[in-house]
Amino acid sequence: MAPDEFDAFYNRSWSRIVGQLYAMTGNLADAQDAVQEAFVRAWDRREELSASHAPEAWVRTVAWRLAVSRWRRARSALLAHFRHGAPGDAPSPGPEHAALVAALRKIPEEQRRAVVLHYLCDLPVAEVAAETGAPVGTVKVRLSRARATLARHLSDDLLGISAR
């Protein structure tokens, strides 16, 4: 199916298929979304549709299946919510967290990456070296310098926070 033929097919069948799916689903927005997605998929299969004797039926079937899949996902999410309850509120970061982030921003990128990989991702020095492409000795130096710089920045930042 050539692009202009597909456009003509779309123009003559869009509203009819949306109306049919609306009757099936009872929700106009869901019907429009599903039909639109079905036409996107149909565009990728234009050649198959031109050989088909019922391209409108193909689009309607795909749209119906998409709508059903959305219902199933929504139902599963709702059942999970009832089964497990709403997700708990994540605690907001404290002043220590903010001070750590601010201090990490003040050190060079290579040191920051080494610190995060080693201390937050819990990687051994050899794995940090492999991931960053730096020799083990260089990673050790970066970690040492980062610890010294972070100690200064953190004590300054925490003193500033506690003085308030």
Produce the secondary structure layout.
Blueprint: H1 3-25, H2 28-44, H3 46-51, H4 55-84, H5 95-105, H6 109-120, H7 125-132, H8 136-162
Helix pairs in contact: 1-2, 1-4, 2-4, 5-8, 6-7, 6-8, 7-8
Shape: elongated
Helix content: over 70%
Tell me the fraction of residues in β-strands, as a range: under 5%
Number of strands: 0
Oligomer: single chain
| Gyration radius over CA | 29 Å
* Main beta sheet: none
* Poorly predicted parts: none
How far apart are the termini? 71 Å
Average of pLDDT: 87
| Classification by helices and strands | mainly alpha
Order of helices and strands: HHHHHHHH
Our count of helices gives: 8
Key structural traits:
single chain, 164 residues, mainly alpha, 82% helix, elongated
Describe the structure in your own words.
Helix 1 (3-25) packs antiparallel against helix 2 (28-44). The longest helix has 30 residues, at 55-84. The chain has helices at 3-25, 28-44, 46-51, 55-84, 95-105, 109-120, 125-132, 136-162. It has eight helices and no strands. The protein is an all-alpha fold and 164 residues long. 82% of the residues lie in helices and 0% in strands. The mean pLDDT is 87.
Short account of what is shown:
The protein is mainly α and 164 residues long. Helices cover 82% and strands 0% of the residues.
